Structure formats: C-alpha cells, structure tokens
Amino acid sequence: MRSVLRTVAAAGALLLALLAPASAFEVERVISPGGIEAWLIRDQKIPILSVQFAFEGGAVADPKGKEGLANLVSTLLDEGAGPLDSQEFQRRIADAGITLGFSASSDAFFGNLKTLVETEDEAVELLRLALTAPRFDAEAVERMKQAVGSQIRRDQGDPDTIVRQAFYAHAFPDSPYGRRARGTLESVAAIGAEDLRGFVRDRLAKANLKIGVTGDITPERLGGLLDRVFGGLPAQAAPLEIGEVVPSTAGETLVVERPTAQSIVLMGQPGLKRRDPDWFAASLMNYVLGGGSFSSRLMNEIREKRGLTYGVYSYLLPFENTALMMASGSTANPNAGAMIGLLREEWRRMAEQGPTQEELDDAKTYLTGSFPLQFTGTDRIAEVLLQVQRDDLGIDYLDRRDALIQAVTLDDVRRVARELLQPGKLMTVVVGRPEGLQGATVIQHGS
C-alpha cells in the first residue's frame, strides 16, 4: 500500500512540475559505456523515472500463417523470466509499484518502464530479465493465447474493428500491412514456443533500438542502466525487407453487411510519410479539412449543417513503408449515401481550392498551442522523445517545431492539397446496412 500511495503522491506533484512549453526542455544525448544511445530529459524535482523504447519491426515481421506473433510476444514478456515464474514476476512488479509493459504495432515492438527512483534497481532487473530471458512457459503461453483469442472473438462483432480490417486487407492485399496485427484464431493457435523465442532473438536487438528517458536520473547513471538492461541483447536484428508499398485504392466502395442501425464509414487514399518535407503543410491542411474537431469543414458540413453524424474526422496515417490519408465517421443507415457524397465533395473542394488564410492561421494556432499539452507526465515526454528519434527529426526538433509550422505559407498548403488529395482514389469501406450507395460492392469479411 505504501508504494501505491507514494506513486499517487508523486504523480500529483508531477502535473504541477511538468506543465512547461516543449521548447523549455533540454534534450541530452546519452551514450552508455557499451555504446547504447538514449535521449534524456532530466527532471530532478520528482523521484520518478520513465523509459520508453522501441525495436523496429513489429507485426510486419510476423510469418505468413502465424500472424499475431509480435502481439502474442508482447503479452508474454512479463509472464515469467529468468528464475521467476509468472506469478513471482508479477508479484515483484506489484510489490514495488512498477509499471512495466509491452505492445506491438505494425512497424515496431514497444516497451515501457515507469518506476520510483527508490525501486529503480528492482525495475531495471525485471526489465532486463523480460527482454533477455523470457520463459514462455507452456501454462503462460496457453493462457495468453486464450486471452488473445477472446479479443479476436470480440473483434469479430465490433463494426469499428471490422471496417479497419476490411480496409487494410483491400488496400494492402499482398503486403504485411494488410494482415491483422492480432492475428486470427487459426494463426494464433499455430504459434509455438520456438516461434516466440525466434521473434525475441530476431527482432530485439541493439541495432534497431531507440530509447527515450525522462525523470530523476543523471546521464552517468543512465549510461549504466542502459547497459544493464539492453547490453545483453544481440547486436544485430535479422534482416527485414518489406519494401515501399503503395495502397491499392481506386475509388471503389465496398460494403460489409452487418445487422446494425448505424453505418460505419472508413475512407482512404495514399498519404505521405512523417519524414516528408511537406508533412506540416499536410497536417495544417488536414486540420482544416477534418482534423480540427468541431472547427473542421467535415464537421461543419456533415454534422452542424445537416445533422448526419455525431462525429466525422480525417487524419494522416504514416507507416514505415507506406502512408494513408483517412476519413472516418458513422451515420444512420438511410443517410450513408448522403454522408459519403459529402465526404467526397469536401475532399474535392479542398483539393481544388485549399484553405483560406483565416483557416490556416487557426490551424497554426492549434498545432503550436496544443503540443505542450502532451508534456504532462514523464511517460508522455519519454514517448515524444522516442517518436522523434523513430521519425529521424533531429535532437533539436522540439526547439524547431513551432518555427517549422509558422514557416508554412498558404501557397504551400494549397499546393500540397492539390498534389496529395485524390478524390478519384478514395476507397470507401462501409460496415452496416447502408442505403443510397451507387456502384457499391458487397464483400465478405470473415474471422
């Protein structure tokens, strides 16, 4: 109980201590004696340490027929390691008030550690064991397979999950990006302990590792921590060649019939990657189109003026080897055709005319003003440091970000809108019983 109270008290003080502009933070590059690099923002006011890290290569590395491997590994690394079985490993985490977890996206395998400084040694040892000596005991593997299977079964009845799975399957028919990161019941059942060990051996390596750290720690102490946790990992990961992938979208409309009162709509076309020099121009354009919540054109035209939806929005979705620009929303089945028509019309109007100067100024105000709100906790700051590294934006990015946004001109945004937005390539996937659609194709989307 004492550890829980200490964590709660520290978290409360943290909110007061960390509400500062992003540019107020000094980012330090730390290289351990063993050559492992991390980016650090020190904060000695609060006795907390947060570590966020990622190994490049997540679900896209899953072998065909064993989709869900990366995800299953992420559920098992804290289910026993080294001399500790699952029960003892979890007990030690709980007794010390440590937060330790793993997850897998399409492109990366993530880990996070959050601990009080007084329990740092215990936390570091548990993380080291999880990464370098996971047990994959038969009981834990079977239990996690059952848990993942329950999630997959829930997904089969969830319209939001169905629409995403169907979209990716058709946008990336011959690519790992079209597979399900959680896998299928059949693919998860096919995964064995050797597959789990093989993923750890092939993907968790120092060469494809990025680390962000925030909290009460010196660079010297962090260097020793990095070597203790990550020093025992292999130097190199197994080769992973995905290649550039162009989404297969050609303006088609696909319907997955489900007995629901609402139609869930997901639209998309090729986008642009985070490293693209036009990223901020595209982000500002997207804010005006559909990223700005109630201030966006999509919300104004579809919700405010016509009352066809509670919410509709657009967003940029970059991956390592591909990118999408998406729009999503829901509406009553009889209104589906009207809503989709308005989405396409606003897409076309933005492509042809771009935003106004007033809309652009409002978007800049939001993108610069909202960014510091991400810095309200050590774990969130460490996440930002990690993502900046993964996107190769430079260690001074936090200092440069606002200036990069302010430098974007109206001509820049209008040019990007013309070049990026392609109404004729918008693929639309609808789950429900939509009415008023012209030329739609009904598709089967199984388990």
Provide structural commentary.
The chain is of the alpha+beta class and 447 residues long. It has 2 domains: 229 residues, Metalloenzyme, LuxS/M16 peptidase-like (Cytochrome Bc1 Complex, Chain A, domain 1, 2-Layer Sandwich); 190 residues, Cytochrome Bc1 Complex, Chain A, domain 1 (2-Layer Sandwich). It is 44% helix and 18% strand. The protein has 16 helices and 12 strands. A hairpin with a 5-residue loop joins strand 1 and strand 2. Helix 4 packs parallel to helix 9 and helix 10 crosses helix 16. The N terminus is likely disordered.
In short:
With 447 residues, this protein is of the alpha+beta class. The chain has helices at 2-18, 69-76, 86-95, 120-132, 138-156, 159-171, 185-189, 193-203, 219-230, 279-291, 297-304, 336-353, 357-370, 378-390, 397-406, 410-420; strands at residues 28-31, 37-42, 48-56, 99-104, 108-116, 209-215, 253-257, 262-270, 312-318, 323-332, 427-432, 441-442. It folds into two domains: 2-230, Metalloenzyme, LuxS/M16 peptidase-like (Cytochrome Bc1 Complex, Chain A, domain 1), CATH 3.30.830.10; 253-442, Cytochrome Bc1 Complex, Chain A, domain 1, CATH 3.30.830.
